[in-house]
Amino acid sequence: MSKVTVVGAGNVGATCANVLAFNEVADEVVMLDVKEGVSEGKAMDMMQTAQLLGFDTKVVGCTNDYAKTANSDVIVITSGIPRKPGMTREELVGVNAGIVKTVAENALKHSPKAILVIISNPMDTMTYLALKELGLPKNRIIGMGGALDSSRFKYFLSQALGCNANEVEGLVIGGHGDTTMIPLTRFATYKGLPVTNFLSEEKLAEVAKSTMVGGATLTGLLGTSAWYAPGAAGAFVVESIIHNQGKMVPCSVYLEGEYGEKDICCGVPVILGRNGIEKIVELPLNDTEKEAFKASAAAVRKVNAGLKL
Ligand SMILES: NC(=O)c1ccc[n+]([C@@H]2O[C@H](COP(=O)([O-])OP(=O)(O)OC[C@H]3O[C@@H](n4cnc5c(N)ncnc54)[C@H](O)[C@@H]3O)[C@@H](O)[C@H]2O)c1
Ligand SMILES: O=C(O)C[C@H](O)C(=O)O
User: Fold this and answer.
1) Residue 143: pLDDT band with limits 50, 70, 90
2) pTM, 2 dp
3) Contact predicate 286/275, CB 8 Å
4) By the 8 A CB rule, do 297 and 252 touch?
5) 152 and 124 share a domain?
6) Annotated binding site for substrate, which residues?
7) Which SS3 state, helix, strand or coil, does residue 209 take?
8) What is the CATH number of the domain that holds 51?
9) Which positions, given as ranges, span the membrane (predicted)?
10) Does residue 82's CB lie within 6 angstroms of at least one atom of ligand 1?
11) Is ipTM strictly over 0.95?
12) Domain boundary among 145, 176, 203
């Protein structure tokens, strides 16, 4: 019997729960929100799609009732405010830090063995906060950003190549911020061949830029931040853990010397499995990429400095 709790049943949380149910990633998915009735309503709405879509996962909604989340294998935290057009993710730190800390503490009381997947922004700093405040081993605290950013990178690459996005591979490491993301164009491939064989340096720079501001572009179009790809990316990370898939996914994790950084959570490729982070993968970065990672970590560290730990 596998169980996942999604805290925050807003745009991202509800989409994540819906994808988890549709793909039957867990036997039970619980959504919890502070807004009276919203989780219950969304859970009932999702359950009314079960026979149309043919899934057996049970979706439960509750208003702030953490007892319903008991014995979850994974807890996904999406609670908090999203940015509006013109804002950065980093501006959300003041409000979201308090929310993330409180909900994580409450959820862990009922699921002391759970693995946490942090989505609320600014995600790298929220992951660091969870790491510092909750006393969990580092393999159980995973920030979701790189899975989404890499998916966007593959989308923009496929647009530039004029090909199917499923035939493109690519990784985005570094912070989950408009200026801190590092799309690794040198390692990206189309059908196993380097994309540098097909796209000019200028085109690849354009793809990297579109990826980095991918979230801001959608926020400008939607008036609030995106949710379909973020929710699906959250579910992808949960599935990799619950089904012990051993996939390599860029996630924000606590670094203790890897990539030359210490005492920070930042995006690097990790192997995900039943223990959460099974392994951090060290990529052979060149000097330019190493410099970019250093600058990205320095920017994340600046936001972390604003936390009251
Ligand atoms: N890491 C990523 O890749 C990524 C991607 C997309 C969005 N986000 C972030 O995820 C967060 C949620 O975005 P959204 O679009 O779903 O926002 P949203 O406003 O649609 O949903 C947030 C939900 O959190 C709930 N909430 C607030 N405080 C709570 C508490 N104490 N306990 C339980 N629930 C609480 C709200 O009632 C709301 O329903 C934002 O911080 C956003 O920036 C991160
Ligand atoms: O852009 C945002 O603020 C939300 C999220 O981090 C995203 O990348 O979609």
Assistant:
1) very high
2) 0.98
3) no
4) no
5) no
6) 83, 89, 121, 152
7) helix
8) 3.40.50.720
9) none
10) yes
11) yes
12) 145
